[in-house]
Amino acid sequence: MAHRLITQAVVVGARVFGRAFNEAYKQAQASSKYAKSSSESGSAANTFSSSGLTLDEACKILNVRPPQAGKANLEETMERFKRLFDANDPTKGGSFYLQSKILRARERIEMEVREATEAAEMEAEIKAGWRPKVWKDK
């Protein structure tokens, strides 16, 4: 009698595990297809992976214009950031959620400008040719 109960428990457990594994596999496959389609369409380049904040959303949050050709008015961005960040301070009755969104928006804009600047520097270096810096001891 005990062997019958043990066998039933093993069979039921295997069925539950099999169904869970099957659902996880389907979900992973769907996620993979979605990631592939979004990377092909180019929309993945406009998202920030850690917060999911797009450049347009970041600019709307801080009420600044999007960077054009990698150049943005960072002074204006920082001024708006400081004003909004201080206005939403939780100790003054503000919202921590809004404060974190404002911080992520500033980081997203800075990241976009930094990436564009690095790309421009790399292009300039490629055009000028590679000239390594050699230091000689005297």
Written overview of the protein:
This protein is mainly alpha-helical and 138 residues long. 69% of the residues lie in helices and 0% in strands. The chain has helices spanning 2-41, 55-62, 74-87, 96-128. Helix 3 runs antiparallel to helix 4 (96-128). The longest helix has 40 residues, at 2-41. The protein is extended and about 85 Å long.
In short:
This protein is mostly helical and 138 residues long. It has helices at residues 2-41, 55-62, 74-87, 96-128. The protein has 4 helices and no strands.
Q: Radius of gyration, Cα only, in angstroms?
A: 26 Å
Q: Main sheet?
A: none
Q: List segments where confidence is low: pLDDT < 50 over at least 5 consecutive residues.
A: 43-48
Shape: extended
Helical amount among residues, as a percent range? 55-70%
Instruction: Tell me the series of helices and strands, N- to C-terminal.
Output: HHHH
- The chain-level mean pLDDT equals 84
β-strand amount: under 5%
Tally the helices: 4
DSSP, total strands? 0
Q: How many angstroms separate the termini?
A: 91 Å
What structural class do you assign from the helix and strand content?
mainly alpha
